C-alpha cells in the first residue's frame, strides 16, 4: 500500500515585491508534488494584494494591516498550516523561486532523515552561475561536502550549523517541538535564533546538494543607523542563544572593561559604542531571560 501524499504548505511573506512574483509563484504552481501556498502580506501598498488575487487565485492570502517583519508574519502562516493538518512547511522568500522537483526531492530526503529539524536546497544566484550564500561552506559540512564533490560521490544531505532562511523545509514534528520564530526579533536575526533552538532540542540542520532554488539576493550599502541596528541584533542573537549560559554580569564586565580602554585612549567612538552595548543589554536583560526560558521548553512556542 502506497503512503499518502504528504500535505505541504509553502509560506511566502510579501512586501512590495512585485518584480519577483512572476517567478516565485509560478514555480510553486509547477511543483511536481502538490502544495498549498500561503501568502502573508506585510501591508504592501504597491498592488501586491490585488495582483495575487487576480493572477494567483489558488493562493491562500492573509492580509496584515501592518508590517510584521519576517518572523511574526511567518508565525501566522505556520499556525494556519498546522490547523490545516500540514506534514511539512516550506518557507520561501518572495525573491526566490524553485525548480519543479525541488519540494518532491526535499520530502523524499526528509522522510529518510527524520532526525533533521530543518533542511534546505542549495541557493543559486539569479544567473545560476554560483551559490548565493558562503554559509553553505561553513563547518562542519564544508570538508565533507567539498571532498564528496571532488570525488563525485555526493550524499543526499549534509549536516551544517547555518542555513539562510530563504528556503527552509520544516517538518510538523519540528514545529511542534521548536515552535515559531521568537517575536523579540522585529526583522533579521530570527533565523539565527531559530537554528540555535533547533540545535538545543537535539535536531539537525542540513543542506541537500541535489536540490536547488534561485535566490535573487543582493547586498546593499547600509547607513550608520542600519549598521547599529544589525549590531544590536547580533548581540541579541548571542544573548538568546540557549546553547550557552546568559550571565549579565559577565557581559557587563566585558563591556565596561572595553569602555575603560577606550576612555584611557581617548577613543570616544569606542566609548560611545560600548556605552550603547551596556544600555542595550540592561534594557533587554529581563526580556531576554523570559524568552530564553520559553525557548527551552519542548513545545510549539510562539505559535
Any key phrases for this structure?
alpha/beta, nine-stranded mixed sheet, 303 residues, 45% helix, Spore Coat Polysaccharide Biosynthesis Protein SpsA, Chain A
Task: Please tell me about this protein's structure.
This protein is of the alpha/beta class. The chain folds into 2 domains: 8-215, Spore Coat Polysaccharide Biosynthesis Protein SpsA, Chain A (Alpha-Beta Complex), CATH 3.90.550.10; 224-295. Helix content is 45%, strand content 19%. Strands 1, 2, 3, 4, 5, 6, 7, 8 and 9 form a 9-stranded mixed β-sheet that branches. α2 (48-55) links the parallel β2 and β3 (60-64). The radius of gyration is 21 Å and the shape is globular. The two termini are 35 Å apart. The mean pLDDT is 93.
Radius of gyration: 21 Å
Q: How confident is the prediction overall: mean pLDDT?
A: 93
How many individual β-strands? 9
* Low-pLDDT sequence parts: none
Please give the CATH class of the largest domain. Answer: Alpha Beta
Provide the helix percentage. 40-55%
Supply the CATH superfamily name of the largest domain. Spore Coat Polysaccharide Biosynthesis Protein SpsA, Chain A
Give the termini distance in whole angstroms.
35 Å
Rough outline: globular
Structural class: alpha/beta
Give me the secondary-structure topology.
Blueprint: E1 8-14, H1 18-29, E2 36-42, H2 48-55, E3 60-64, H3 69-83, E4 88-93, E5 96-98, H4 102-112, E6 116-124, H5 141-151, E7 158-160, E8 167-171, H6 172-178, H7 190-200, E9 204-215, H8 224-240, H9 248-264, H10 268-295
Parallel strand pairs: 1-2, 1-4, 2-3, 6-9
Antiparallel strand pairs: 4-8, 5-9, 6-8, 7-9
Amino acid at each position: 500500500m502506497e503512503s499518502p501524499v504528504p500535505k505541504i504548505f509553502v509560506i511566502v511573506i510579501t512586501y512590495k515585491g512585485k518584480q519577483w512574483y512572476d517567478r516565485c509563484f509560478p514555480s510553486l504552481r509547477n511543483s511536481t508534488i502538490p502544495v498549498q501556498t500561503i501568502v502573508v502580506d506585510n501591508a504592501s501598498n504597491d498592488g501586491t494584494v490585488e495582483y495575487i488575487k487576480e493572477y494567483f487565485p489558488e493562493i491562500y492570502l492573509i492580509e496584515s494591516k501592518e508590517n510584521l517583519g519576517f518572523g511574526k508574519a511567518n508565525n501566522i502562516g505556520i499556525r494556519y498550516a498546522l490547523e490545516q493538518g500540514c506534514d511539512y512547511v516550506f518557507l520561501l522568500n518572495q525573491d526566490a523561486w524553485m525548480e519543479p522537483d525541488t519540494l518532491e526531492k526535499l520530502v523524499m530526503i526528509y522522510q529518510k532523515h527524520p532526525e533533521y529539524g530543518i533542511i534546505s536546497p542549495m541557493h543559486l544566484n539569479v544567473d545560476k552561475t554560483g551559490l548565493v550564500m558562503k554559509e553553505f561552506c561553513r563547518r562542519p559540512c564544508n570538508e565533507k561536502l567539498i571532498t564528496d564533490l571532488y570525488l563525485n560521490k555526493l550524499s543526499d544531505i549534509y549536516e551544517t550549523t547555518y542555513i539562510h532562511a530563504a528556503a527552509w523545509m520544516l517538518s510538523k514534528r519540528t514545529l511542534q517541538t521548536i515552535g515559531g520564530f521568537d517575536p523579540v526579533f522585529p526583522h533579521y536575526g530570527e533565523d539565527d535564533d531559530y537554528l540555535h533552538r533547533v540545535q538545543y532540542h537535539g535536531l539537525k540542520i542540513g543542506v541537500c546538494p541535489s536540490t536547488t532554488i534561485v535566490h535573487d539576493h543582493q547586498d546593499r550599502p547600509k547607513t550608520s543607523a542600519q549598521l547599529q541596528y544589525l549590531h544590536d541584533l547580533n548581540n541579541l542573537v548571542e544573548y538568546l542563544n540557549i546553547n550557552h549560559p546568559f550571565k549579565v554580569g559577565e557581559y557587563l564586565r566585558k563591556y565596561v572593561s572595553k569602555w575603560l580602554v577606550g576612555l584611557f585612549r581617548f577613543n570616544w567612538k569606542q566609548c560611545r559604542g560600548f556605552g550603547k552595548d551596556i544600555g542595550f543589554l540592561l534594557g533587554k536583560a529581563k526580556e531576554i531571560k523570559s524568552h530564553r526560558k520559553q525557548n527551552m521548553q519542548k513545545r510549539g512556542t510562539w505559535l
